[in-house]
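Handout, section B. The chain below has 288 residues.
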Amino acid sequence: MRNLSKAILGVTALALTISTGPLSAKPVDNNPTGNAVYAQVVIWDIPAAQAATFQNTLYQKTREMIRVPGFVNERVLRNIDTLTFHFATYTKGTNRAALEAATASRNQILRGYASRDPEVHTLVLKHTYWGADGGSSKPTGTEYDRDAVGQVAHLGVFVPFNDFRPEYDRTLDHVKVFTRDRLPAGYLGEDVLDGADMSSPNALAPYTPRPFEAARVSVNYGEYETLEDAENSYIKRGEDRPNDPRILAWERMFYSALQVPTRFYIFRVVDSVRGPGRNQVQRLTLSR
């Protein structure tokens, strides 16, 4: 975990590496019918004494998601810090009502192991970036799905001001294209998601500084093969910051668009559940 704190700083400073050019390749239309892909992100804070039981119970419930109408896939995430126990689930499906009902039912069962209510966001998958020139503005949610666990995942939660949302979205797209086009070692892909609805300040940030106004949350999810791959990509982005006044302007625009400081989590994928008819993968056991 060398330079982890430096890596995290490099990640949260997303706007340091903005490319002002357009997409290098036309985005792929993976979803010609235009059916929306929804997602639920649920973030848990679990006491150490309950962590193993919580994870085992969550494992038992994840396979039940396959029976949910419209289910696409799910990642079960656990933080890489061995001193605390944050878990998260990232679940995608095309039937919003069924997805919300299934995760709410599971959350009710898991709540007894947690120190507080989970943070829950209902989202719409807007863009996916992967591989060499891979990009989709109509993603299916399966663009970089794979038969593997153990990869490193980052989860960013951002709350822009409504008036500055266009500038925020444009800046974020430049960052994702810039990262993808560099083809960093171990890079698997990234998703950009927007809140499905306007949310109150309390719902946007229940346990951190409250935003000033209701808004649609912005969530970024991405995966790398290893922590070292992720660190190297984040650090290189910061060290290679172009000496260009346009980039500095984008940086100011990005940070000025945010209502509250960024929140960024680094997890390991410990379970991966895929839709009906698709191979399932081995889970990771809990280790201290």
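Note. The two ends are 15 Å apart (CA to CA). Compare this with the example in section A.
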